[in-house]
C-alpha cells in the first residue's frame, strides 16, 4: 500500500503483445527517492527479462494462443518503504488460419485434383480430400491424380497448418 512518505509504483499499461513477441514494460512513472524495482509475473504465461530494472522486457516467445499475464511491480524507496502496482499483458494470437483452395482438371471420367492454390503464412501440414462430401476422407496429399469421379460430384478439401488451424472448401467437379 502507498503511504504519503513512501514511494508510488506505476506499471504503466495495460500492454498488448502478439504471440511469440516481446514488449517493453515501463515503470518510469513510479515516484520516490532512490527506487529499486522488482517485476514479477503473478499469473499467466511468459517470462521477464531484466526484472530488476525500471523497463524490463516481457517475452511471449513460448506462447502460442490468446492469453493474459498479470504483472506486478514492487518499488522500494530509500528508507525501505514499498509500494506495489499491477497491470496486465494481453497476448494475442498472431497466426492466421490457412486458406483452402484447389483446382481440378477432367479427362473423360478421370479427374486430377490440385490443392497447391491453398495458402498459409506457415506450413500446410495435411491435405484431406472428401469425394462426395460425405464425411469420409478418400485421399490425402496436395495432389490427387487420375481418379474416377463422376461429373457433378462435390469434392471437399480440408487443410491443416502447423498451428493446427484448418480451412475447407467444397467444389463441384
Automatic annotation (TrEMBL):
GO terms for cellular component: cytoplasmic vesicle; membrane. Residues 1-29, 77-103 are annotated as: Disordered. It comes from the Archaea. InterPro entries: Ig-like_fold, KIAA0319-like, PKD_dom_sf. Residues 77-99 have a biased composition (Low complexity). It holds the Pfam family K319L-like_PKD. This is Peptidase m36, fungalysin.
Amino acid at each position: 500500500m502507498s503511504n504519503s512518505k513512501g514511494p508510488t509504483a506505476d506499471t504503466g499499461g495495460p500492454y498488448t503483445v502478439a504471440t511469440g513477441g516481446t514488449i517493453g514494460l515501463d515503470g518510469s512513472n513510479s515516484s520516490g527517492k532512490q527506487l529499486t524495482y522488482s517485476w514479477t509475473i503473478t499469473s499467466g504465461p511468459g517470462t521477464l527479462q531484466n526484472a530488476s530494472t525500471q523497463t524490463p522486457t516481457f517475452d511471449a516467445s513460448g506462447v502460442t494462443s490468446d492469453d493474459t499475464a498479470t504483472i506486478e511491480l514492487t518499488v522500494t524507496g530509500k528508507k525501505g518503504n514499498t509500494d506495489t502496482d499491477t497491470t496486465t499483458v494481453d497476448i494475442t494470437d498472431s497466426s492466421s488460419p490457412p486458406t483452402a483452395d484447389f483446382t481440378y482438371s477432367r479427362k473423360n471420367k478421370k479427374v486430377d485434383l490440385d490443392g497447391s492454390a491453398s495458402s498459409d503464412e506457415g506450413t500446410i501440414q495435411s491435405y484431406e480430400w472428401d469425394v462426395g462430401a460425405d464425411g469420409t476422407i478418400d485421399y490425402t496429399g496436395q495432389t490427387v491424380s487420375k481418379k474416377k469421379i463422376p461429373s457433378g460430384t462435390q469434392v471437399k478439401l480440408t487443410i491443416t497448418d502447423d498451428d493446427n488451424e484448418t480451412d475447407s472448401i467444397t467444389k463441384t467437379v
